[in-house]
Design goal:
Oligomer: single chain
Number of domains: 1
Helix content: 10-25%
Largest sheet: 8 strands, antiparallel, barrel
Signal peptide: 1-20
Distance between the termini: 32 Å
CATH architecture: Beta Barrel
Low-confidence stretches: 3-24, 161-166
CATH topology: Lipocalin
CATH class: Mainly Beta
Mean pLDDT: 79
Shape: globular
Strand content: 35-45%
Keywords: Signal
Radius of gyration: 14 Å
Length: 166
Amino acid sequence: MNLPSKAIAILLLCAPSAFADTQVRSCVFDPDSPQSCSRFVGCIDDEGEYFHGTYIGQTSGTLSGRTSAGETCFGTWANEEGKDNGASTLTCGPESARFKYFARSNDFNVVSGVAISNKGRRMISWAGADLKGYLQVRYPDKSRSGIQCGETFVPLPDLSKTEKGS
């Protein structure tokens, strides 16, 4: 599997909440492993609310994480065969969305996705093997890597917080 496909697979979605607590204590990207792990992060509307977590797999898999409001997130993702794009589903509490995602950077193996949730809120996400590096290049004037959610800059959560679901 090529690295952009791997990154696409990274994109959003989570596993059931019971799995979310045990999914990944050590998130390691390994393009040769079906248990390869990477991070995702995204915005919900333009109010500064965000979600983050990890995903497992190569061309398809599971995602788990949490919103900034404390909702547990879970879902699945899958690449379109032979392409650098795909789809994922994400459920965070009572809200759910189906994302379409596309390769953004082969240098960093990052994809981004967009969706409108069942509550009518716009959601955007980024995922990939070197998400931190990609975000540092995208927002170079910030002291930490992160995402811009409307007028609010959201620093990339520490992986330890992602793993613990906080």
